[in-house]
Write a structure and sequence with these properties.
The complex is a heterotrimer of chains A (492), B (426) and C (150). By secondary structure, chain A is of the alpha+beta class. Chain A has helices spanning 29-62, 98-101, 112-115, 117-120, 142-151, 210-221, 223-227, 258-264, 267-275, 281-291, 323-329, 339-350, 387-404, 406-409, 462-475; strands spanning 13-15, 70-72, 78-81, 123-124, 128-129, 135-138, 157-163, 169-175, 230-233, 236-238, 244-246, 254-257, 294-295, 303-305, 308-310, 314-315, 362-366, 372-374, 414-425, 428-439, 446-452. The radius of gyration of chain A is 30 Å and the shape is globular. Chain C is built from two helices and twelve strands; from the N terminus they run H-H-E-E-E-E-E-E-E-E-E-E-E-E. Chain C has a six-stranded antiparallel sheet with strand order 2-1-11-10-7-8, with no helix packed on it. In chain C, strands 4-3-5-6-9 form a five-stranded mixed sheet, with no helix packed on it. The chains are: A alpha+beta (492), B mainly alpha (426), C alpha+beta (150). Chains B and C meet through helix 2, helix 4, helix 9, helix 16 and helix 19 of B and helix 2 and strand 5 of C.
């Protein structure tokens, strides 16, 4: 830059400044460019270090280069132990949670352990590997899970429940279940479905689907208009295209109001509702889509919970006067919903808002240096259906429970919907018994779904099964936050 | 006249520091391996070569020795690293190429220290460019990047880098020479540069080695930006936006049109293919995680068994044995070479271009190597200058370091500055 | 010499030593960079020698000649810039080579005058040469830090 000296009128003596050889601006461009490149590179380097340090546990866990810690239930009972052979625990200790919690054998992919393996790695970037024990605490109640598992006796089935106020996943039991402590040598002879938590697998929902259909009707016509509707049932009903819808009561229910039909789980009533001009198919599809169904093969992202993936419900609806579509709206045929998603909807009905609290299964993480991080936060799902529809179904379900389940669930203020799924599989026909609902009691705010597979008259009923679940949860004092374990409890 | 006056820019203290730094590292090696013959051999060779280097720099008259000193430091460190990976074995080949790189730095400095002469020699650089392109095209086979001479393999695309930097740089005089074609004014040299860039891109496409394309593209981009800014007060925001949009467009088109083997590389989820195409990166990342901040100790690494552990994923190999902290610091140390230019500005347009070109080449190469092996960007087989093993890479990096030195200590006369001084100046 | 036992007894000894060594290495590098700053002053001195210590004076304004090529003109990117209409955007180029400064007309409309004569080819500059560019008169002086009588 030129040096400017105060201008004098008639300079007689000029001071020649000392030699200045500073490089002109044009020579500084390369320096500026280099500085820019350097700055960008250094920023990227800082980012790299951040990524490496925060993800290093994942790298170690994924490549199997480190030991693993423990997974516990809400009371500290061990559900998975990577620090010693699980066979050292009492026999059958993991037999009811194996397919939910999983292990590091690589046999199961959609489990708490495999999906959160980096949280379980006994490793920290500063202290290296195996210099302590990591504990991952879940919100699961092992006691309640065990109670449900035992209650099924020789039957198979599923029980899934969560606290609809906080989002804590409480029970996620699926029988048959693998026992990780026994290993996988007999994998060929394991009953099918042992390696899969069926709470996350879509199944035929049976009449529990009528909840969804009822929500569609409420959203289209308003709660009062639908509650005033009446249709008659004579044991079976022939629809506009000649399809015959049978009722489970061959003598028919006569003319019923909605509340009665809901309690009776009357197929002709709901088939007529679907066919009626007051409930156009487009409205049903709209409601279903909003609730999370994949209608007619439309792509829907799976639900997720702490990394676990749950395929979205699906159904096929083409023409509301046809048998297949009506049958789908009644929860049979091509309709598939996972018990988890049925439970989630009950959560949105229980709080009468149409938006459920998002379930979570990880409560806290205790790292290698015994620092505890709380992982569970209460968040809400998007609006699944309208508040009015939620309130309407809430009332109908509570009414149903009060009138028809006081014998089995009388100790609880509940709302329920039962279902019977007709399944034809491997050339065999059988019926699954479902019950989905919620409990409103202060000490037991639970939304649940239970499934008893291939149930016959002699087996435990769905309501008795649900009572076992609720009893166990109430005695577990689930309204208390799971206490973080600084010293992980031992298994034996 | 005292000695320091005749040779003002020799820093005995700095060279002593280099000696100390290497001693500190060698002590660590000794702590890992004990006082074995191999350790003594390594220590002696590194320290003696430092000493010899220092003496050479003391007695050879020159104006700048920052680059030389950093080079000595980096080359010694690199020799120590390469000798210790997975167990102690003196990396003789690497060491010899290190010396060669140091000599190359001096030779290329002498060649380009006079910017006028360096630019006057541009036809020669273009000639080298043609020869190298021809060599790549005819000698390396259609799907390889190496020329095998039996006793040694040469990677001509490495030598293309310094030649390309020489082509990239341009003086204001060249930029003022405009030609006209049907009312369209253009600078012939700029067109030639674009043409050369296109040739390289085409050739890289042909030889299926798109890995080093970003390096050349960055050098060309910086050169063009610098050339445009010669005749501008500053780069306007609009121009930057247009250029940025252009770069994004080219990147998107390249992405869309990229051949399937490139697309595969761009899309690989390494964690779902841990034993296949993601193998190297999985191993590299795990090694960094295992090393932690301060490493497992020299020679205790296992990554050395993985292919390219001394070249493409050398950052992870250093991380595993010496720790992430050391690896990052080593990278920063290499950056000191171009960074020295921030304190000593170049004095001519041609040297500005050289310096920026080398800075771009070094930095993009390191970005591709480090971030590629850590799975933040697609993994390509490029080297870290002076740290990775590989003769061609060492030599070409040495040549480019010479350019940096030239930019710091230009000589504008047929005689050297020292001779000018002896003649009493002006 | 068995250090394994020592490391086992003091678990963080090796880490501390590594950290120390590496920090030391980079400390050295930092000193080198600081030395580069000193080198800059040496570079300046060297440049002063190469460039004969010349500067351009215009009245009481002095322009340093800190690069091998100095562009004079009306263009904003020029190193010595005069916003006069008589001066072309790229008017003249000063070049340093072989210890000599030369001035060159690079397509100026009104030409470059040295000591009153219009130059047609590059001309070597000497001390006290008068350069006229448009209305501007520049004198080749030596930076001395002394007073001179005008």
């Amino acid at each position: 830059m030129p040096r400017i000296y105060p201008q004098e009128q008639q300079p007689r003596v000029i001071h020649v400044p000392p030699l200045d050889v500073s490089a002109p601006r044009s020579m500084r461009r390369a320096g500026k460019g280099t500085a820019l490149l350097l700055a960008a590179f250094l920023v990227a380097l800082v980012y790299l270090v951040y990524v490496l340090v925060t993800r290093s546990a994942f790298y170690m866990a994924k490549s199997g280069q480190t030991g693993y810690g423990k997974v516990t239930d809400r009371k500290g009972d061990v559900l998975f132990d990577g620090t010693k052979p699980m066979s050292e625990y009492e026999a059958g200790h993991f037999a009811d949670v194996g397919n939910l919690i999983g292990d590091t054998s690589g046999q199961m992919s959609n489990t708490v352990v495999t999906k959160n393996i980096e949280l379980l790695a006994n490793y920290s970037f500063l202290y290296g590997k195996n210099s302590g024990t990591v504990t991952l605490q879940t919100t699961i109640s092992h006691k309640a899970t065990r109670a449900c598992y035992n209650a099924l006796g020789k039957k198979n089935g599923t029980a899934v429940a969560y606290n609809w106020k906080t989002g804590e996943m409480l029970v996620c039991m699926s029988k048959p279940c693998v026992d990780p402590a026994l290993g996988y040598d007999n994998i060929e002879s394991m009953p099918s479905g042992s390696l899969l938590c069926k709470a996350f697998s879509p199944t035929v929902p049976g009449s529990t689907q009528k909840v969804s259909t009822l929500i569609a009707a409420y959203e289209q016509n308003g709660v009062d208009a639908v509650n005033a509707m009446q249709f008659s049932c004579s044991g079976s009903w022939v629809n506009a295209t000649g399809g015959k819808i049978n009722c489970h009561n061959p003598y028919g229910h006569g003319t019923q109001s909605l509340n009665e039909a809901f309690a009776n789980s009357c197929n002709p009533f709901f088939a007529q509702l679907v066919q009626s001009s007051q409930l156009p198919l487009s409205a049903v599809i709209e409601t279903y889509t909003q609730m999370g169904y994949s209608v007619n093969g439309q792509k829907v992202a799976p639900l997720t919970m702490n990394g676990l993936t749950i395929p979205a419900a699906s159904t096929t609806l083409t023409d509301s006067t046809e048998f297949e579509t009506q049958w789908g709206c009644l929860g049979q045929g091509k309709t598939l919903v996972s018990p988890y998603q049925l439970m989630l909807w009950q959560g949105a009905i229980a709080n009468a808002s149409g938006s459920a609290v998002q379930p979570y299964i990880l409560a806290s993480h205790t790292d290698i240096e015994n620092r505890v991080t709380q992982l569970g936060t209460t968040t809400r799902t998007p609006q699944l259906f309208t508040r009015a529809a939620a309130q309407g179904v809430h009332d109908v379900e509570v009414d149903n429970a009060k009138k028809h389940y006081s014998g089995s669930l009388g100790a609880y203020t509940c709302g329920v919907k039962s279902g019977t799924a007709q399944i034809r599989m491997d050339g065999k026909e059988f019926e699954n018994s479902l019950l989905t609902g919620f409990c409103l009691d202060e000490d037991c705010p639970v939304a649940f779904c239970v499934v008893i597979e291939e149930r016959t008259g002699a087996d435990i009923s769905n309501a008795q099964f649900a009572k076992v679940l609720l009893d166990a949860l109430r005695s577990e004092e689930i309204t208390k936050k799971p206490a973080a374990q600084t010293t992980p409890a031992q298994g034996n | 006249m005292s000695r320091s006056n005749t040779n003002p820019v020799s820093h005995p203290l700095l060279l002593l520091l280099v000696l100390f730094a290497h001693t500190a590292m060698l002590l660590l090696v000794m702590l890992s391996f004990g006082l074995t013959v191999e350790v003594l051999k390594l220590s002696c060779i590194v320290l003696i070569s430092d000493f010899v280097g220092a003496i050479i720099l003391q007695f050879v008259a020159q104006e700048a020795c920052t680059v030389d000193t950093v080079l000595l430091l980096v080359l010694g460190m690199s020799t120590i690293y390469q000798s210790c990976f997975g167990g102690l074995a003196f990396a003789m080949k690497h060491f010899i190429f290190g010396i060669a790189a140091f000599l190359m730095c001096q030779i290329s400095y002498v060649l380009v220290r006079n910017p006028y002469r360096a630019e006057k020699l541009k036809p020669l650089w273009y000639g080298c460019f043609v020869v190298l392109i021809g060599a790549i095209f005819f000698l390396t086979g259609s799907r390889g990047i190496w020329i095998d001479l039996g006793f040694i393999t040469i990677q001509p695309s490495e030598f293309l880098k310094p030649v390309f930097v020489l082509i990239c740089a341009s003086s204001i005089r060249t930029q003022l020479k405009k030609s006209e074609f049907h009312g369209w004014h253009f600078v012939p040299d700029n067109l030639l540069l674009l043409f050369c860039t296109a040739v390289i891109a085409g050739l890289q496409w042909y030889s299926r080695d798109l890995g080093s394309l970003p390096t050349f593209a960055a050098a060309a981009g910086c050169a063009l930006l610098l050339r445009f800014s010669y005749l501008r007060e500053k780069i306007s925001v609009r121009l930057m936006l247009v250029l940025g949009a252009g770069v994004v467009f080219v990147a998107v088109m390249a992405w869309k049109l990229a051949p399937s083997y490139v697309q595969d590389r761009l899309h690989t989820d390494i964690w779902s293919d841990m034993s296949g195409s993601g193998y190297q990166q999985v191993k590299a990342l795990t090694a960094i995680a295992e090393g932690g901040w301060f490493g497992k100790g020299a020679g205790n690494g296992t990554l050395v068994n993985v292919a390219a552990s001394r070249t493409d994923i050398v950052f992870s190999t250093i991380s595993e044995e010496w720790g992430l902290f050391t690896a990052i610091m080593t990278v920063v140390l290499v950056l000191f070479l171009p960074a020295a230019l921030l304190t000593v500005p170049p004095r001519s347009y041609y040297h500005s271009g050289l310096a920026l070109g080398v800075a771009a080449m070094f930095m993009v190469q390191m970005t591709l190597n480090i971030f590629g092996s850590c799975n933040l960007i697609p993994f390509t087989g490029v080297t870290i200058p002076f740290i990775s093993q590989g003769g061609s890479s060492m030599l070409s990096s040495g040549i480019m370091a010479g350019f940096l030195k030239a930019a710091q200590a230009p000589v504008l006369t047929g005689r050297t500055a020292a001779q000018l001084r002896k003649g009493g100046g002006a | 010499m068995d250090l394994t036992a020592l490391f086992e007894r003091y678990p963080y000894l090796r880490e501390a030593l590594t950290a120390f060594a590496v920090i030391f290495v980079d400390f050295c590098a930092l000193i080198i960079l600081v030395a580069a700053g000193r080198e800059r002053r040496r570079g300046d001195r060297n440049w002063a020698r190469e460039g004969r210590g010349y500067m351009l004076a215009m009245g009481t304004t002095f322009f340093p000649l800190g690069a091998a090529e100095i562009l004079i003109g009306r263009h904003p990117a020029a190193d010595i810039r005069f916003d006069d209409n008589e001066i072309s955007r790229f008017h003249a180029l000063l070049t340093l080579s072989n210890g000599q400064w030369t001035i060159e007309d690079i397509g100026a409309q009104n030409g470059v005058l040295v000591n009153g004569r219009r130059i047609t080819q590059p001309r070597t500059l000497r001390q006290n040469d008068q350069i006229q560019i448009g209305k501007r008169r520049l004198t080749v002086v030596r930076g001395t830090g002394k007073d001179v009588t005008a």
